[in-house]
Design goal:
The protein is mainly α. It contains 18 helices and no strands. Helices cover about 80% and strands about 0% of the residues.
């Protein structure tokens, strides 16, 4: 146990991990359910798919801009202020969305408000908090936390589909808004701490990491004293940042953008029954659990840049299945393969970023890397909607995605894995 004697009898590090896991589950689970609301909103407000997916575009842009700001605010204020605010805003905005009578209400409450909440309590802030609590087994901890996103997808997407089809989309929004406020909100408010120092504790594995760092840095104490925080422009000038950010941008285009937003209406358009679609979504989520945990484990033991290259290349292969998807079983094969690598890029990307910029503001750097992913998600959710309205098909978008993913696999091999020295 990595804690000070007499402070507590159990490792609070794992309590933090559990709370963040639950937060990832509800936030990403509801965001991943967006595709279930596309058709109901089209009928409810008499609009086209481009209009509905513009909500997703707006949400991703706000989420993208908000993540670096949220990371910076969390670095500044600490405690649990920023993530708790985010969780409560998410719940309130879901409840308000359930009362929408015009399309602009949905834009305002779900597109803007809900996205602000996710930015404040999302993966960037959560990862920054977790990296403060874990030095040893950091990759595993990040993988376990990220698996909460997969659990959320496994549980909440089918639940949303079921409630929408049985009693309507308004009830679904209302139910989950109340659940978030009543159950997750108190966990964040009373138990979450941004740093182990807030509990008079040390990070998990602190002793071993301290001895290793002391030995490695014995001869450069003078240079350490001269180091200063790396400004944003300094981060943007580093090769390592761009070799992480550009592939992560395409990652966002192809996962939370294209697949998370469009897989349900895409499958519906191919004539696939709702039961098969729900099964496919569940298989993606189950495979995500194995993929995120396995990725976190491997990121502590093997080359992270090679790991990322494999993830992007394998995702490209799974997209080929969607291009030729005619039989229902191909959707299920895609779901297993894609799910295994969908979120697997998160742990190695965050681990590399934390190592490259470990002498600087972790929250700000992770926020900037996440910004690229969410901007990609914005583009990937919006453009396919436009292309569908124009061509009535997703084929061209899928073909372009395959080419981009293969290119990003090669680019990932150029990621440096040595820490910046300032």
């Amino acid at each position: 146990m990595q804690q000070q004697a007499g402070v507590c009898r159990f490792s609070y590090h794992w309590m933090i991990l559990t709370i963040l896991f639950v937060g990832m589950m509800v936030s990403f689970g509801m965001r991943a359910s967006f595709g279930a609301y596309i058709t109901p909103w089209e009928y409810e407000f008499s609009v086209g798919r481009t209009t509905v997916t513009t909500i997703s575009l707006l949400g991703f842009i706000i989420f993208a801009i908000g993540q670096p700001l949220a990371g910076k605010l969390n670095d500044h204020f600490g405690k649990n202020i920023v993530p708790t605010f985010g969780i409560l805003v998410m719940g309130v905005c879901l409840i308000l969305t359930s009362r929408a009578t015009q399309m602009w209400h949905v834009f305002a409450m779900f597109g803007v408000g809900f996205s602000i909440g996710i930015a404040a309590a999302g993966h960037n802030v959560s990862a920054a908090i977790l990296t403060q609590w874990f030095v040893e087994k950091r990759g595993m901890a990040l993988g376990l936390m990220t698996s909460g996103m997969a659990i959320g997808m496994l549980v909440l997407v089918p639940a949303n589909l079921f409630i929408i089809r049985e009693v309507g989309w308004r009830t679904a929004m209302l139910v989950f808004g109340i659940i978030i406020i009543a159950t997750v909100g108190p966990l964040y408010l009373f138990l979450l701490k941004s740093k182990p120092e807030d509990k008079a504790m040390k990070p998990y594995g602190f002793a071993a990491a301290y001895e290793s760092a002391k030995s490695a840095d014995h001869n450069d104490d003078a240079s350490k004293k001269e180091q200063k925080p790396l400004p944003v422009m300094g981060i943007l000038k580093t090769k390592g940042f761009w070799f992480l950010a550009i592939p992560y941008f395409i990652c966002g285009v192809t996962d939370v953008g294209l697949i998370t937003t469009h897989i349900i209406p895409m499958a519906e358009g191919r004539g696939i029954p709702d039961a098969i679609i729900a099964l496919a979504v569940s298989l993606i989520a189950i495979a995500n659990i194995a993929g995120t945990i396995g990725s976190g484990y491997l990121s502590d033991r093997f080359s992270r840049k090679r790991q990322l290259a494999f993830i992007y290349a394998f995702r490209a292969v799974t997209f080929v299945l969607l291009i030729f998807m005619q039989q229902h079983w191909l959707l299920l094969v895609f779901a297993v393969g894609y799910g295994a690598v969908e979120m697997a890029s998160i742990a190695p990307t965050n681990s590399v970023a934390a190592d490259l910029f470990r002498k600087y503001s972790t929250g700000t750097v992770l926020g900037m890397v996440a910004l690229s992913h969410q901007l990609g998600g914005a583009l990937g959710s919006w453009v396919p909607g436009i292309m569908y309205d124009i061509t009535g098909s997703y084929t061209n978008v899928l073909m372009v995605s395959v080419v981009l993913l293969l290119g990003m696999a090669f680019m990932s091999l150029g990621i440096p894995e040595e820490s910046l020295q300032g």
